[in-house]
Amino acid sequence: MATLYELDDVLHPQVITELYREETGKLFSHPLLDYYGQQAKSYTGDRFEFAYREAMKQPAPASLRGQPARILQPTGLSPRQVYMLHAFNEVSLSLDALQMIRRPNDLTTQEKGREEIVRQMEDFGARHHVFRAVCLAKTLADGVIHFGPDGQVLESSTGATYSVDFGVPGSHKSQLNPGSGNIIDIAWDDPDARILDHLDAIRIQAEEENAEEPRHLWLHHSAKRWLRQNLQVQEYVSGASEAVDRVLRGTIVEDFNGWTWHFFSGTYRSVTGALVPYIPRTKVVITPDIGPWLRAVNGSELLTGFEGIRSSVDGALQDVTEVFGDFAYVKLLDNPTKLVLRMGTNFVYAFANPNAVWMPTVDF
Fold it and tell me: Coil, strand or helix: which one is 278?
C-alpha cells in the first residue's frame, strides 16, 4: 500500500525545509520583503563581503590626432562587509504526532500527523518571517538594528547588547542636513510645508552625492492626512483635499510628482508587548529602484538528519545538507522520545551605497 511519506522523510532537512517554505509562504506576505527581497542571492558563509562601484561621471580626456594614448588610472571599488543576521529556535511536537507519522499503512492517520507538524510550522515559522521583516524595516527606517540580551529586536539602543549599523550618514537622517541647513525645514503635518519641494531637494542632493536617483517613498497610511491638507499638494493636483484623496487612493500610487508612493500601516509586537508600525508614523523611507545599491542575501546553514557514528569523514559529510535563507528540520530525540521542530533563518539586507537611502523624520 502506498504511503503518504516515511518517518525518514520527516527527518530529512531538505524535505522539511521545502515544506516549511511552502506552507508558511502561503500565510505571510509583507510588502517590504516582497519589494526589497525580490532579487535575494544565496551566499555561503557568515560574513558577506561585497564591493560597490559608483556611477562614472568623469569624461575621458581628448587627444590630438597622432598623439600616444593617454595613461589613465584604473577605477576602484568600495569594499564592504557585513555579518549575516541569524535566528535559530526550536519547539517540541506532541508525541501523538510521532505516533501518527509512524503508521505507514494508514494514510488518514499519517495526514493528521502531517497536519500537526504543518500547524506548528505555520505558527512557529511566522515568527521568523516577522523577525526578517522587522530587521528589514529597521534597516530602511533607522539604518541600524539594536538587539537585546535574549535576541529581541529593540526600538532604541537602550538595553542593547549589540547593534548592527549599516553606515547610513547622519545627513540622511532626522531633518536631512547636508551642511547647508535642513532640507525638511517644516514638519509635513503643517499645511504650509513644501513637501514636493523637499522631495525635489532630496533628488538634487542625491545627484550631488553621486548616488542613485531616489524614486520610492514608504509612508504610514496616516501620512495621507497631511497630504490631503497640504496646500502645495492641492495646488499640484488642481483641487481640494478630495482631489488629493482621489489621486492617492490605494496602497501604491505610481508616478505622483515622479515618485512611487507606498502606504503601509502593518504592525508587529515589540519586546514590550506594544504594537509598533513597521513604517514609523513620523518618518518617510526613501530609496531608489532596486539595484546595486542594495544587497539582499540569504545566508547558508549546514544541516544533518543523522546522529551517531560514521566510519569516515566522507560518510559523515554525505549526510550534511546546505540550505539558504529560511530552514527547518525535525529531530527525533530520546529520554524521553519526542519530535523537536527546529527552524531558523540566515539573511541580511545591506547597503552597498548607504548614500542611496534617506530616512527623514518629517513629523516633529
Answer: coil
DSSP, residue by residue, 142-187: TSEEEE-TTSPEESSSTT-SEEEE----GGGEET--SSSS-S--S-
- Asked if 48 and 299 touch (Cβ cutoff 8 Å), the reply is yes
- 70 with 328: CB under 8 angstroms? no
Q: Sorting pLDDT into bands at 50, 70 and 90, what band is 317?
A: very low
How far lies 5's CA from each of 10, 21, 328, in Å?
8, 18, 17
Q: What is the dihedral of CA 260, 282, 227, 31, to 10 degrees?
A: 30
Q: Which residues contact 168 (CB under 8 A, 6 or more apart)?
A: 143, 144, 351, 354, 357, 359
Burial of 101 (0-12, 13-18, 19+ CB in 10 A): buried
C-alpha span between 192 and 190 (Å, rounded): 5
- For residue 92, give the H/E element and its range: strand 85-93
Residue 344 backbone dihedrals phi, psi, to 5 degrees: -170, -170
Give the H or E element holding residue 294. strand 294-304
pLDDT at 305 over 90: no
| Contact status, residue 218 vs residue 277, Cβ threshold 8 Å | no
Contact indicator for 177, 201 with CB cutoff of 8 Å: no
Cell of 129: 518571517
Q: Give pTM, 2 decimals.
A: 0.84
124-173: pLDDT as tens digits: 778 889 999 999 999 999 999 999 999 999 999 999 999 999 999 999 99
Name the 3-class secondary structure at 315: helix
Beta carbons within 10 angstroms of residue 7's beta carbon:
18
Task: Tell me which residue of 246, 207, 252, 208 sits closest to 227, measured CA to CA.
Answer: 246
Q: How crowded is residue 46: how many other Cβ atoms within 10 Å of its Cβ?
A: 11
